[in-house]
Amino acid sequence: MMNCIIIEDDELSKKVLEEYVKRTDSLTLVATFRNAIDAINHLSNKTKVDLVFLDIELPEMTGVEFLESIQQHPQVIITSSKEKYALTAFDFDVTDYILKPIRYPRFYKAVEKAHKISKFSEFSQTDNEIFIKKGSSLVKLSFNDIHWVEALENYVVLYTGSGKYTIHFTMKAMANNLPYHHFIRIHRSYIANTRLITAIYDKNVELTVNDQKYTLPLGKSFRDELLSKINLMNR
Fold first, then answer.
1. What is the pTM of this model?
2. Domains of the chain: which residue ranges?
3. 2-118: CATH topology
């Protein structure tokens, strides 16, 4: 069961979403908001929310501004009448982007995707390692053995000393479940093991693994955080 909220100022769209949530046994509607500010206040009260249905064009604060304002937001499914915000929305690792008018089959497909992510069916984590699902078995990986992570459409690829592992996961979920002191997001499509970083350039990061050098892209919006973290670690 997932607790969800709806942020939607259009009355008809709000009623449609409320009805769809009601029809979906795996969802519980916690609250509905006509603006993002009230939703942020609700989330700041530590109320457990697993999923947000978020309109983009909202009064006072847009959906994009909402995503920018919350560092650790729940899974988000965007509901919008326009396609033009899709690329920006996916920069925030939203779970899905649904165009209005919304039909229930498309709504249900997005919810199922959110469930798959929330169940962590592909791996489980302990203090020093994760277990990756490979076929019908589980493969244990130490955090030290993960060199970097790359996004690949609806999957992520883990590059390790023992090979590559592809799992059905989002970059946001991956970043949230890898230890912050050990890994950092350097690009919307890359997470790097900080212990392997040997050089930082304007648009690239160099990793050294067993004397072999690898170059990964460095996103402009991630550069300041990376430099701050490296400086903090070197104090």
1. 0.58
2. 2-118, 123-233
3. Rossmann fold (3.40.50)
